[in-house]
Amino acid sequence: MKFAHIADCHIGAWKEEKLRELNIKTFKAAIEICINENVNFILICGDLFDSVLPPINLIKDVVRLLKQLKDNNIPCYVIAGSHDFSLTGKTMLKVFEEADLVKDVANNGFVTDKTGVKIAGLYGKKTSLEIEDYKKLNKDLLESESGFKIFMFHTALNEFKPEPEIQGMEYTNLPKNFSYYAGGHVHYIFDIIKNEYGRIVYPGALFPNNFKELWDFKSGGFFIFENNNLIYKKIILKDTLNIEIDISNKSIYEIREELFNLKDYEDKILLLKFMGELNGSISGLKLNEITFKNAFVVLKNLSRIKTKEAKEVILKEENIEEQLIEEYNTEFKDLIKDLMIILDKEKEEGEKNIDFEKRIIEEATKHLNLFN
After folding, report:
1. How far, in Å, are 79, 189, 268 from residue 293 at the CA level?
2. N or C: more exposed end of the chain, with fewer CB within 10 A?
């Protein structure tokens, strides 16, 4: 018996077009590996898509790949994750299930694969609301079933989570007596065997989902389980080059010169992380003029920059420096800083783009007192 364990594909997550395409190409590569490895079945443990209703072009790409699995007689078992779960049940996963491309196992019972493996699972919800659903599981039924059993879940486990601020639950909330617990949601690679339970595994994200993950992991992958052995399949379609630039005690000219002299980034994902105190304004760096034409894509992280005008400029990983006001005005300095904080807020899990935009506009409008 041989199966693949995939999680957190987050197809459609990247705003940067080249990285969005690289994400779907990574999913394609994973499917091709599974076919070439002749796995008996595939598990996708939540967040196949980054949203409940992804763009139609991405849906078409995924359908084409899932059809390849069906043509090769490889079943695909899925659960929804915190990003692609909907309380109404109206998700692409349900559409795929109706088309007989996948099988949703989050039904409080077992689905039996042709190999005889019995698969059950529970979906993930935004803000980890699925934790309450574990109290409603028919654990007696799940635990008493014999044979090789897999439980698919999309939840952080407090004892093993990589970052303490991630909301999770104790692993003892899982039903006992399963051979394999196929996890998703936390983007790190983890494997442990617990008495009375079984093997608990997280494969990490199939493709890095943000600047930090690209910086830390450079790539993603998935697991193949065969004869009680786990084999990690790393997928690297583009190399990543991390460059940390200390701007302390340097003039803007020196910083720009250092950037112009960077080498060996051709056809790579170039990650630029700036740190230190800037002698001048960020706009003075004119980062948009430095294009790195031969790089595959360039991402900049300005979160650790401090300036003499404002001791700490709150910026995220995206290239939003071009949106900053050209020069600070003493009269409106506090207002500018407050607006930067508002504009720096991120979309909440499950929040639609239109709702996110409305929330930010309302907060900014209220702060500016435009209609008072």
Report:
1. 41, 34, 11
2. C
